[in-house]
Description:
Structural class: alpha+beta
Radius of gyration: 35 Å
Strand order of the largest sheet: 2-1-6-5-4-3
Number of helices: 12
Strand content: 15-25%
Oligomer: single chain
Amino acid sequence: xxxxxxxxxxxxxxxxxxxxFSDGRLLMANQGLVNVLDLNCRxxxxxxxxxxxxxxxxxxxxxxxxxxxxxxxVHGLEYHxxxxxGEDRWVIHDSFVRTDPETGEKTIEAIxxxxxxxxxxxxALQRQGRFQQLLIGISTKYINLPLKDVDSAIDISLGExxxxxxxxxxxxxNYDFPQHIxxxxxxxxxxxxxxxxxxxxxxxxxxxxxxxxxxxxCGEPIWLSDVHSLPPGSLRDxxxxxxxxxxxxxxxxxxxxxxxxxxxxxxxxxxxxxxxxQRLLTVFAAMLVNVRERKRTxxxxxxxxxxxxxxxxxxxxxxxxxxxxxxxxxxxxxxAIGIRLKDGPDFPYCQTTGFPDEFVRLENHLCTYAENGEAxxxxxxxxxxxxxxxxxxxxxxxxxxxxxxxxKRGAGTQ
Length: 414
């Protein structure tokens, strides 16, 4: 019968072992215990060693012994620990206290079944459930959110997502492919992590040629699992300056077009993300696009109503044009606005705000005039447009000129 038991101990994958109640010293162990502890040794090599030297406690040391002492036996105790290699392990533990009738020494006779894979699957499902609840909470928040509160709500949501996936920094960028730039518009940083927002308000894509923009344009995420393994280049230099170990950038897609991306940085240590994590972050990215589209649509609708009210309430043309100029300046965020109205072949300024008087005087006319006061015309009889606006209208400018880009973004609209 003893041979049968020996074969059974060697056959089973469960850990079967005996240890001293007083100090946790192993007195008997099978191959199952070696496997559960993920050790590279024989079962007999464990005899005389203390359990505390063979694993890393997650739960309080002595939990099993105290439970067994109190009740005499333990059934179905779920126990969590780490191996000496740092891997998490969960077991279902059954044991009882045995007292040697001759020596009076107490021992614990134990069986432990490895349930690590099951626990990891359960935790993954629970994590996915928490993530979905987070997404539901975020989406619900935006349903009736006033337009003025959308940007601050996005900042909060970005932080919630960053916290959930264990990131240290998260940000949202807009793409402007005609201008070949990416612009940072939102950022969240974990406490103690330095902000990079001011450094990335406007990033020329030409400055980071190894950033895989085409992947984003095709709707694919960019995943850098280990920044230090990247080939030398501007992308690696940029991320190493920030201390980034891993980076995930999920594209923001609107009607098949990439309009930006939401990025998550891991700074303390490299991160390995799961397929489900990527899918859920993709859902978050789609939610951000919907929120931003709603904000844009509502802003345009509100602006249109306000403009219609201005058109209906102005006392005269001069009052109307001034009100429209002021409105457009506020709505566009431009520093200066000018309105031109047709007067013969020309389009002189009829209302401006924000432009210096000297600029308005020099640029008042679109056309160039002959000495007799007549507008000069080209071979086809069209008036020659020689001012800045005329050159832009006629396409006589370099679209990559930095001054023209600044003009487009904020200097003035005419």
